[in-house]
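Posting this for the archive.
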Amino acid sequence: MTMPSDLAKQVRQFVETEIVPHETALAAGDEAARELSTDLAKRAQQTGIFGAFYPLEYGGRIARLTDYLHVAEQEGRSEYAPGILGADATLDAHMLVRHGSSAVKQRFLAPLVQGAAVSSYAMSEPDSIGSIPATMTCRAVLQNNKWYINGRKWFICRSQSAHFATVVAKTADALTAQALSMIVVPTDAPGFEIVRPLAVLGRFQGQSELAFTNVSVPQDYLLGEQGQGIALMQQRLALGRLLRSVHWLGLAQRCFDLLCERVHSPRGKLARLADKQLVRARVVKVYQGIAAARGLLFDAARKFDDGIANSIEVNLTKLVASQALSDAADCAIQIMGAEGLADWTPLSGIYRAARTTHILDGADDALISTVGRQLLSATAPDRAFDPLQPSLSIGRDTE
């Protein structure tokens, strides 16, 4: 295994020299952008920095999430780097290793970790409530050793380029925790349709609405066991929110760097920006947010590595990292002035990306409500509350 600090330096160098100069071209999202992204991914593989946190038996170079955070923050410095460096596939790689059948691993996992396939996760639906899985209507019926899937999904990331999707579907009629399952579906299966691309804040970034019409796949394309959908969703969220958060932290740090660069630039000196109290206040606000998010990330990641309950920590991390990125982008634009709104700086794109983080992987309002309920449960008079391990305090009786 590689020293995380050394790998982080390599990733930082690659992102700054190979990806950042091409961000305008990558943002176009056209065929030329896809070809460029593929070419850069091949270079990343040749450099040995691709898929750093994949499972070790499938080419990963780092075993513990706490060690990977150093690398992941550097991956996150560009909106496009996680895709190019294979980081976007990390969560699916771990889920397929843990729960995929031999058929799934052979057909989907192997090309995924080799950079030859793109994955997507199809959960959200047009007519369901994202925070209430029981409202999902996409169904999968098992007949003659095949799953037949019917339904619609939308705002599915990477769906326009994906080779397969992990689909959350109802496999039982009862409104219980065992009603949902996850099934891996190749996107070239008959009946799989991209209904329309969906822009997010005016940008097309690979999200689409999908339709499944009698899509059939083998029975062993099921992940885990039938009825494990909720449990697998919780596993995805536990790791996925931390992976997202650390990449957002990388973007926030880049905004902070751009803010400080402008303050110290000739124009910044001419305007005496460093002498202005409001500028100093923004610098402190941004740095404080990043530092807080970083501390929460390492705490939640350590508990993840050690197998300690960390649902409160994970959700707080997601909330704080999202806010840190939003504040960093907003303050950097404010200090940059009109240039911060222009396409020749990355800030306008980062600003829009920052707003989406308050919805992606769980809307802020839903997470705040959940964490509030958990904290009130953990601090009830008959509970023994440990503020250093709040998730463990949920349901823990007083000795």
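The chain has 14 helices and eight strands. The mean pLDDT is 94.
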